[in-house]
Amino acid sequence: MVTPLPRRRIIKVARETVTLDRLSDGRLILGLGIGIDTGRELSAFGEVTDPRQRARMLEVGTKALVDLWSGVTVNYTHEVILDGVRAIPGPVQQPRIPIWFGTERVSGSPVARAAHYDGLFPLHAKPADVQRIFEAVAEIRGGIDGFDVAIVARRDTDLDNFQSAGATWAMHAFWPGHRTDQVLRLIESGPPN
To answer: Luciferase-like domain spans which residues (predicted)?
Structure first.
């Protein structure tokens, strides 16, 4: 659901996402985030663990990714290194593949970052949080047209309250540790009530 962009090579993500976008005939939405060190998934590999530094890497990396999708020759020398790189072909979706940001926060810089793109996936949001997110986004971008907020749907989630607050998507979240039979059981049970 969310790719921790600071851990990935931007050119590889650019090529993978364009491939998926083309194979799906323009249905890809890319989820990005800074990543977390749960289970030492960063520190065990010598990755950057400081969240502020990873946030800067995410911001620069996202801009570089968008530039790569556009087909222009890209040069970045801070946080992300790209020296005269051009990635073609580009995505089916124009002007670019939609980008949503995953976050554990419902305010501050993660919301401001997402406001410049297409959506936010706040992992622990309540309906009132969704309303505040839309207010903050509207203030930054002058409206909420084309902006989505996705929430985590559990069996007991009152989707009507989230929809009334403005949420546009509800998704189940699966984490490392979920077994295949748990995922299949949830899929087979159908959408939440």
So the answer is: 1-151
